[in-house]
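Input (structure):
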């Protein structure tokens, strides 16, 4: 079978010719949709009002944004912080995670997930990746639970929901807390219930590349009033808040930090609600079309969703690549060839978080040396216990993704992706030899 078969007759035109990576003309020179989107006519009014008011530190606009975001997610409470990393840190600390504890985490994630665990003094314990969904393999979690395990930190990576039903069953069975990393998964759903509302806490990011961009910023959502009050207190220098005022009086009642969002950040955030749902729908439509087409390409295996997923965010569109179906052309060379054709594909080379040297450096710090035994901090032994062979294969050989803004294009744009993949496949042997 060749890629340029009758299955792809509707998109074949334009796939002929020398690949751009070999000096030919790129298939696509048209720009992709710009991100983030900003419409001065509709988006600047609220921001200018805040700037001109002179009230820039946390006040009523931040509270308005928090209330609106909680409502959109389907949670009763929300506290914003300076970024998604600190949303995770605050949540873990206020759920009692600290030195001597272990936190179950996936290796296929952004470094911030693990940095948050290390910031509490806990040790991350890695569970290998489900190669079909790119999520933490819920079937392998229980074998990693020890007497020190206190929490599970699933990541809805790429905006695709993790297996939260199974994860919550495991957490309940072993009396563990669950903090959901939803940095890439705004408004994704399982059984029509949004991610971030299954665990004890849901943590979101509003960094510039995210589907809900503010520039920087993060949010914690929960239905637990006492927990959210403590998160609010912590992010505001430990000043008592909510139920804590009645319990402790006013003043500095817990150790805290200063992580408050600004009013103008919240004003930018408020502009996103008017466009976010429409953008999410468009990403889902385009992702569905793209997946239906590329699944028939040789050596291309698109992501799978768990059966109860009712909506995804598609911060990334991931798929696996098999070089043996493409004349032995290495994944990295395949990605380079796609990029030369004008398709911004990415090989996630840094998503092997379980084997990066920062862990060894963390174990050398004074706090870790005091909190753990030499045996527990033996780096070679730790690496052996946290070996994730499937994740290694994904990162080194197979995983490819497309960024979310690509999915904001039209049907013709999706066809360009398919054309480029066909063109590279049909010239794989030439590219490999070159």
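Output (sequence):
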């Amino acid at each position: 079978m060749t890629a340029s078969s009758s299955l792809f007759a509707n998109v074949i035109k334009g796939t002929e010719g020398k690949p751009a990576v070999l000096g030919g003309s790129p298939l696509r020179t048209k720009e992709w949709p710009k991100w983030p989107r900003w419409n001065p006519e509709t988006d600047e009014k609220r921001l200018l009002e805040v700037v001109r008011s002179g009230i820039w530190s946390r006040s009523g606009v931040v509270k308005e944004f928090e209330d609106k975001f909680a409502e959109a997610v389907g949670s009763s409470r929300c506290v914003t912080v300076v970024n998604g990393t600190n949303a995770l840190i605050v949540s873990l600390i206020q759920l009692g995670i600290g030195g001597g504890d272990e936190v179950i985490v996936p290796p296929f994630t952004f470094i911030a997930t693990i940095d948050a665990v290390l910031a509490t003094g806990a040790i991350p314990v890695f569970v290998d990746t489900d190669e079909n969904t790119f999520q933490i393999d819920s079937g392998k979690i229980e074998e990693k639970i020890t007497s020190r395990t206190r929490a599970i930190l699933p990541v809805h990576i790429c905006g695709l929901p993790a297996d939260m039903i199974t994860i919550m069953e495991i957490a309940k069975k072993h009396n563990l807390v669950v903090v959901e990393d939803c940095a890439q998964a705004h408004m994704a759903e399982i059984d029509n219930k949004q991610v971030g509302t299954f665990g004890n806490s849901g943590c979101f990011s509003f960094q510039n590349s995210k589907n809900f961009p503010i520039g920087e910023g993060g949010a914690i959502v929960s239905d637990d009033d006492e927990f959210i009050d403590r998160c609010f207190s912590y992010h505001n220098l430990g000043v008592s808040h909510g139920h804590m005022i009645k319990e402790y009086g006013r003043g500095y009642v817990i150790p805290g930090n200063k992580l408050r969002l600004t009013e103008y950040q919240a004003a930018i955030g408020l502009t996103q609600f008017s466009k976010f749902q429409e953008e999410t729908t468009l990403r889902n439509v385009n992702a569905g079309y793209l997946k239906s087409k590329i699944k028939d390409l040789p050596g291309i295996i698109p992501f799978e969703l768990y059966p109860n997923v009712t909506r995804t965010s598609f911060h990334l569109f991931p798929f696996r690549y098999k070089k043996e179906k493409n004349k032995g052309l290495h994944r990295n060379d395949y990605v380079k060839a796609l990029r030369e054709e004008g398709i911004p594909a990415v090989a996630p080379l840094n998503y092997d978080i379980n084997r990066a040297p920062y862990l060894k450096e963390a174990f050398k710090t004074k706090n870790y040396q005091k909190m753990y035994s030499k045996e527990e901090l033996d780096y070679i032994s730790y690496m052996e216990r946290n070996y994730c062979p499937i994740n290694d294969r994904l990162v080194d050989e197979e995983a490819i993704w497309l960024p979310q803004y690509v999915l904001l294009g039209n049907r013709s744009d999706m066809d360009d992706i398919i054309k480029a993949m066909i063109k590279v496949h049909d010239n794989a042997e030439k590219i490999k030899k070159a």
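Notes: The first helix runs from residue 40 to 53. The chain has 15 helices and 13 strands.
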